């Protein structure tokens, strides 16, 4: 009997000291006097659902303490956080306000209490998607839409995206304006006057309703405008006035309201809300179970992430209740283990797949949604692993459903655009060619009608260097007299700075056609071509001077005088071999590298002969080399190698098409 009683006591001791305590207390902070209770309702409902289902924590109940804080009173916020710590909360669900989150996290970090909210510090779990990934998602969409010029409206204390990173990552003309509700109208008017049609709106949900009204007042709800909202709650706003004006409104959403599990939770949440609030309030904040704002959905997921972390911890560790105060600053010994298990949670909640890395959410799915005539539809999605995937690209270029006929201008150039001149051809049937076929195919695939006509001045488009005005098809597009231009139009930097181009269907440069120079007919004195005429004159002068010098020096030198008939002793005749004719013969023989019977005897004549021989060697070698090069390269000489050579010379006349890219090229290079 004694042993059985002891065993029973040990069993009770193990039961109450291992795993998770039967009661877990958590704290939550919500904004005070905001008039919105949706986040608080989602928090209460998540705790209620956990305690009711018992699927995650069958032996544990979660109780909560709620405090209401003001973002303008950080001291009061700190006091209320310390009050929650003193009552023994094991986690604190903090608000999304960045200023208050910093103060709250400093206390949680010092006491090792998990802070579940939007903070990026230690001992915090950020259930919001990582801002870096969200920024990449918006950058990918902007690049897909090929925005080269757009504006950004942002509020000081609000920002889902990092505007500086976005502006650095995209090569575009960006106009950023910090706004408040009082300045919405003036900034929109500024963008309208500057013809900025693509606008990113990074403001809070409270200001979006007022901004939408200002857009209507400015009549900026036409199809040429495209608004890209950074808010994930676009589906919760009334867009009835925008549906039938064909204005482009795009955004991301984090909650897939079409998911069956999400619909069931929203329906149950609405029923729970009627027991907490009055019926009118429940309908207002829950949108009659049709949708839910992102913040309440994230609060709901935060509670479940905490519960899953507790469930995982229960299997291998014992969680001891905290007994902390802000005065002692003694950290909770169970906080580190709990935060590690929460950080390892992988789950799919209202906001999609959830996974963390160092407290930051790195697994999620953003649905790209766009307003159409009847409703908001999903047109793609973005994930950190797969990046942007557009499932319905036609919605971004769907003009057929808007019953809009585009004005398309072109210019005649065979074989791209040609024209039938018969009387039986009218309208678009007058034109045919490669570019016309491309336009027809695009109109069928995208779905739009068009009116094709020639540009009035028959020019592609060039900028006047004096007035700065454009002409041709470029001017027609800039003045909105045409919607599209089609043809063999060259993409240049100057044109691309004022109009947008599609991807080129052909890559070409400036080609120059000219007749290859023919070889000159053989002439009598063609052998003289390897050397300049001046060289030949200098050689001839040197020949005469050297010959005369040898003649004179030979006459003056006694050694050059010798007996003409040495064997005839009776007739001794003394003569000189360097006569005038022999001197010239000796010099020309040396130049031609041929020997002669005359050779100098005196030192003076030998020195002159050696100098002349060395000179002859250099001249003959140079002539031989130049002659070989002249004969082999004569047919390979081209007067023009590239367009720059043509632009810098004046001997060859050339012409270009007026107001074309080639004309602009040569005009910019000719001083």
From TrEMBL:
Topology of the protein relative to the lipid bilayer: Multi-pass membrane protein
Keyword Ion transport: yes
Example of a GO MF term: signaling receptor activity
Residues annotated as signal peptide: 1-19
Binding positions (L-glutamate): 490, 495, 661-662
PANTHER family in alphabetical order: IONOTROPIC GLUTAMATE RECEPTOR
Name of the protein this chain belongs to: Glutamate receptor ionotropic, kainate 2 isoform X3
Gene source species: Drosophila pseudoobscura pseudoobscura
């Amino acid at each position: 009997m004694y042993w059985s009683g002891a065993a029973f006591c040990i069993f009770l001791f193990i039961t109450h000291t291992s795993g998770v305590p039967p009661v877990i207390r958590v704290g939550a902070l919500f904004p005070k006097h905001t008039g919105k209770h949706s986040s608080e309702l989602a928090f209460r409902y998540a705790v209620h659902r956990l305690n009711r289902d018992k699927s995650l924590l069958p032996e544990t109940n979660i109780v909560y303490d709620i405090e209401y804080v003001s973002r303008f009173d950080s001291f009061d916020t700190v006091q209320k956080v310390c009050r929650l710590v003193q009552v023994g909360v094991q986690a604190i669900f903090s608000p999304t306000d960045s200023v208050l989150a910093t103060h709250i996290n400093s206390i949680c970090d010092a006491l090792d209490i998990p802070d579940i909210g939007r903070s990026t510090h230690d001992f915090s779990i950020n259930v919001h998607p990582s801002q870096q990934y969200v920024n990449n998602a918006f950058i990918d969409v902007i690049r897909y839409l090929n925005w080269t010029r757009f504006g950004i409206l942002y509020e000081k204390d609000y920002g889902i995206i990092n505007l500086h990173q976005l502006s650095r990552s995209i090569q575009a003309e960006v106009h950023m304006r910090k706004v408040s509700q009082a300045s919405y109208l003036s900034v929109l008017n500024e963008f309208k006057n500057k013809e900025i049609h693509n606008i990113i709106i990074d403001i809070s949900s409270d200001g979006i309703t007022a901004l939408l009204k200002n857009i209507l007042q400015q009549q900026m709800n036409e199809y040429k405008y495209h608004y890209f909202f950074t808010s994930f709650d676009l589906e919760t706003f009334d867009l009835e006035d925008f549906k039938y004006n064909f204005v482009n409104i795009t955004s991301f959403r984090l909650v897939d309201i079409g998911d069956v599990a999400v619909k069931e939770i929203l329906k149950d949440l609405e029923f729970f809300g009627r027991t907490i609030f009055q019926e009118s309030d429940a309908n207002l904040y829950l949108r009659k179970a049709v949708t839910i704002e992102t913040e309440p959905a994230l609060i709901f997921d935060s509670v479940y992430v905490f519960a899953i972390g507790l469930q995982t911890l229960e299997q291998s560790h014992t969680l001891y209740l905290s007994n902390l105060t802000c005065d002692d600053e003694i950290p909770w010994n169970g906080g580190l283990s709990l935060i590690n298990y929460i950080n390892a949670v992988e789950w799919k909640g209202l906001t999609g797949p959830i996974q963390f890395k160092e407290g930051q959410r790195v697994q999620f799915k953003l649905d790209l949604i766009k307003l159409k005539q009847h409703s908001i539809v999903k047109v793609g999605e973005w994930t950190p692993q797969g990046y942007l995937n557009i499932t319905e690209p036609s919605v971004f270029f769907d003009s057929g459903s808007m019953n809009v006929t585009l004005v398309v201008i072109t210019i005649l150039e065979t074989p791209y655009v040609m024209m039938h001149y018969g009387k039986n051809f009218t309208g678009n049937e007058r034109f045919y060619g490669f570019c016309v076929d491309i336009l027809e195919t695009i109109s069928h695939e995208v779905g739009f009608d068009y009116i094709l006509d020639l540009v009035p001045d028959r020019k592609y488009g060039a900028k006047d260097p004096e007035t700065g005005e454009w002409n041709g098809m470029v001017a027609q597009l800039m003045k909105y007299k045409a919607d599209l231009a089609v043809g063999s139009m060259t993409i240049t930097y100057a044109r691309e700075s004022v109009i947008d181009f599609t991807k080129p269907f052909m890559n070409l440069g400036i080609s120059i056609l000219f007749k290859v120079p023919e070889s000159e007919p053989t002439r009598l004195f063609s052998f003289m071509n390897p050397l300049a005429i001046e060289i030949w004159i200098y050689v001839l002068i040197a020949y005469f001077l050297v010959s005369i010098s040898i003649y004179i020096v030979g006459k003056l030198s006694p050694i050059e005088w010798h007996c003409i008939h040495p064997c005839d002793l009776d007739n001794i005749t003394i003569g000189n071999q360097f006569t005038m004719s022999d001197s010239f013969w000796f010099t020309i023989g040396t130049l031609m590298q041929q020997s002669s019977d005359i050779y100098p005897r005196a030192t003076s004549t030998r020195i002159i002969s050696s100098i002349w021989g060395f000179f002859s060697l250099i001249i003959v070698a140079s002539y031989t080399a130049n002659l070989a090069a002249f004969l082999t390269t004569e047919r390979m000489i081209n007067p023009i190698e590239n367009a720059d050579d043509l632009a810098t010379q004046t001997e060859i006349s050339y012409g270009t098409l007026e107001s074309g890219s080639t004309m602009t090229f040569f005009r910019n290079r000719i001083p």
